[in-house]
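WARN retry 2 of 3 for item q-0093 after timeout on previous attempt; input resubmitted unchanged.
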Amino acid sequence: MSATDVLIVGAGPAGLTLALELSMQNIPFRLVEKELERSDKSRALGVHSRTLEVLTRYGDSIQQLLDCAGRIAGNNLWINKKRYSGFDASLLGLTKVQSDTRYPGVFTASQVYTEAWFDRRLGERGIVIERPVTVKSIVQDGEGATAVLAKQDGSEESVRARYIVGCDGAHSIVRHSMDVEFVGDAYPQEFILTDTGCEWPEGQGRAHIFLGDSMMIFLPMKGGKARLVASRPEHLASDADPTLKDFQDCIATMLPEDIPKPKLHDPYWLARFHLHHRCVSKYRDGRLFVAGDAAHIHSPIGGQGLNTGIQDSVNLGWKLAAVLRGDKPDAFLDSYHEERWPIGQHLLRETDQLFTFLTTPDPQMKDMRNMLLPHALPSLVGTRETGSKMFIYFSQLRVKYRHSSIVHTAAGFEGPVLGGYRAPDGKIRTAKDEGEESWLQDLFRGTGHHLLLFS
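OK item q-0093 returned
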């Protein structure tokens, strides 16, 4: 039987992040993935400001990911063929957000590029993803857990790990091996999706939300491409995958006659699917943990899934390292659930409410939505202040752990930044090297802790 400190199951964004963090912390681990090759489908698109900040702890290479990303300048809301202005990134230009993060924007990058960025970082560290490897069973005890791995050649291997982390998605074998519930439900509607080439001046750099009898979302992507997602009415539900004509017909019913229609061509992903909203009852069970989609799945509104999973793994990774090095007791790992479970619950609740409101199949609710939303929109995103608040929320810059057991003892201090809050970013000038400018959060790279004193 082989042994390791941590067995990571699943090499999607959450698993890759955990592997990168443990590698930086010099903790022995293995990373296994059941799929032989990476998917060529775009899947998750949104990469948010807080995620980009977190990834800068792994070096200067984040620009390589940004070079593959598009940037959304804002969005338009269409209700019954009438256009209403929505979020506009220019509203951020004169707010504190501009100086509080170096990434004040909404970015879209195919998960293909995001995973490739992680693969390069792991490759630089000599980390190999073991694939295709399937976990057949997991049994834990008070000292660790044993997993049986099935290899491509038909052989099996038993691996003993001090901890096992499930980053293996919605059907997680690790979660099924834990004493937890996966609480939630499925949305009743069927949805269709395409990633496709697109020629449409109206769509350059701007997202569009169309509401009428059904719902459609248009997301611009880099390189003259776009993603379209639409709800499919129950009477039109089909066992067949959608065609590009389905999207052309749908968007034609959403736009007024005087607006040129998008020219869609060369689709490279066409799919139909149902969505779920679920979260585990706890992120830890003894020696087993879950992160990312293995812990929480929710609607794609706001692009929260990939970003939340990456931040799950960073949170868990440095804590595993602290325990495995002997710096902290095993109970220190309970703070992972304390800090990340409320985030998952909050996102699940908020995205579910918004998604249900936007995609409701109920005719009366649709009429009410289409009547009320134009009046509510200005107060939601119509000013610099409201636009900034919306950006901060969806970009996860407001995530905080104030009530965590490892934080709340830091009482008695007052100010805009308290224990458990995100550390702000901003330009600083060093006292050496002729006052070279850098960013505050660049000081946080590496595995050490940092104390900042301001005067």
